[in-house]
Amino acid sequence: MVFSVLWTRSFLLTCELAVSAVAIALLIGVPVGWAAWLNAIKRLSGSGRSYRMGASGIVTSLFFGVAVASLTMPLVLHAAAWESAAGKFGWWTLTQTGSRRFGQFSGLIACSIVHGIHGSAAVALATWIGLRRIPGVLLESSRLDTGPLKRAFRFLLPMAAPWIATAALGVAMLAATEMTVADLYGFRTLADEFYLFHAAEPSAMAVMMVCFIPTLLAIFGGWMFRIASRRSGRPVHPHRDDSTSQNFASPTAPGTILTRLLSLAILVAFMLVVLVIPVGSLIVKAGHDVTVVADQRQVAWSLSSCVQRLASAPETFRREYVQTAMIAGLSATVSTIIGGIAALGTAARPTRRRWMDAISLAAFAIPGPVIGLGVIGVFQWPMTGFGMLYRQTLVPTLIALCFKSVPVAYFIIRVALAGRSTAIRSQADLDAGPTGRVFRIWIPMYAPVLAAAWITSAVVASGDVPVLLPVVPPGVTTVTTRLFGLLHSGARYQEAALAFWYVAATTTLVITATWIARRRRTGGSDVIG
């Protein structure tokens, strides 16, 4: 009876967190996706080459980089940034105004904010994709019937609804499977309940309970993705230029300037919320000093202390940074190779591709604690060498991390392959053998995409705390696992300095990879769309 009551409570808490996170993600992501679509305007010059228009293009380009960086950033880093701002020892909490709300950033509120802001990037990108796939003829007819804002709510967003629903289901699935944030704020979801009380002796009932919601969401998400991708009758890929079928009104037309300014303001606000404020909070927290004088707490901020602590962090946490880079690099290399082989092997075979999509989605939906314990169970088998591999090598760690990083690399490469016609693949088959096609044709052709897949899977692998905690060998500590342990007592300057350089490095890498991939996609002209 007690067992059923505990699982019922955790089940309801998981549903509550998923609904709250989806609501915040939709509230932020849908307007941002609409604003990004509205600003993604390309004009053709006399030479026929595309180019961006002024501030609109710059802001939109930054949006894509920031959105992808926020989406791939590990949730524990999002939690560290917001804990530095509004947590127990956050800079805002230590102000006179913020101290009145001490302790409110916890439980469901904190988990929903972290998951919702993280998921808003996925919703924004999905909204943009859905709007970009609306045929230009329908856009022209709708423009004649109503104004831009009313048209967005009555026509555009309903047309993009399957894409938005797919992203929303993804946000809910992550909230149901990721226990890092829930554990930090004491919100006992199914994944956290399994990690805390059933990891030592997992039962079939416990595994079934923790996998039930993610499996259900993955099934609905895959079904919704098929509906979304088939609505316009075209496969999803980044190489097609749809701008010629989505001609916008003149930027100087009545009402257009006001709408464009509104969309720019929305994009700027989004970048402030998901990047500038969190990173700024880490910087501010690194320079915070709290002292007690005559039973009175005094809070001061020092620029010299901030610079000194940030500068010394790479040396102080050198072991964590080196081990994180090693694990992330190895995992990304393995994941990119496996994902590339899977994507290339199924590119011309729709039935195999659908099966591979389903397998990848199923692997990604498995909760991290279940993956880690499953890998540990395999290496506990009485087979020669398994014990040594488990205790002294990174093999179990890499296998466990591949459950998340391989699907990420696979889908990135799969989308890129969908952008090449069958004629190119047929010509490649005639010009070279299997090995020659890979090294002489496919790798040079898709080098930017492979780089993007490698970087993205490296970031995902390095931040997969639920998987890393049970399988990482003794003596090995990554940035995210160390940060996860430190954040349980609140975010102080040590945690802020540790997280800052990791956030800065991953954000720079992801934005650079996104920019390179988008330039290569358009043959050297920097274009959004």
How would you explain this protein's 3D organization?
The chain has 2 domains: 1-43 and 50-309, MetI-like (MetI-like fold); 317-488, MetI-like fold (Orthogonal Bundle). 74% of the residues lie in helices and 3% in strands. The chain is mainly alpha-helical. The relative contact order is 0.14. The chain has a two-stranded antiparallel sheet. Strands 3-4 form a two-stranded antiparallel ribbon.
Distance between the termini: 56 Å
Order of helices and strands: HEEHHHHHHHHHHEEHHHHHHHHHHHH
CATH superfamily of the largest domain: MetI-like
Q: Describe the strand arrangement of the main beta sheet, using strand numbers.
A: 1-2
**How large is the count of helical segments?**
23
Quote the CATH topology of the largest domain: MetI-like fold
Overall number of structural domains:
2
Tell me the CATH architecture of the largest domain: Orthogonal Bundle
Q: What is the number of strand segments?
A: 4
Membrane topology: Multi-pass membrane protein
Transmembrane segments: 17-37, 58-82, 102-131, 152-176, 204-225, 261-284, 325-347, 359-381, 393-417, 438-461, 499-517
Protein name: Spermidine/putrescine ABC transporter membrane protein
Organism: Crateriforma conspicua
Q: How are the elements arranged and paired?
A:
Elements (H helix, E strand, L loop, with lengths): L1 H38 L3 E2 L5 E2 L2 H19 L2 H12 L20 H26 L3 H10 L2 H12 L1 H17 L2 H5 L5 H8 L6 H28 L24 H31 L1 E6 L2 E6 L1 H14 L1 H29 L3 H16 L2 H12 L6 H7 L2 H24 L3 H10 L2 H12 L1 H16 L2 H7 L7 H9 L5 H29 L8
Antiparallel strand pairs: 1-2, 3-4
Protein name: Spermidine/putrescine ABC transporter membrane protein
Main location: membrane
Membrane topology: Multi-pass membrane protein
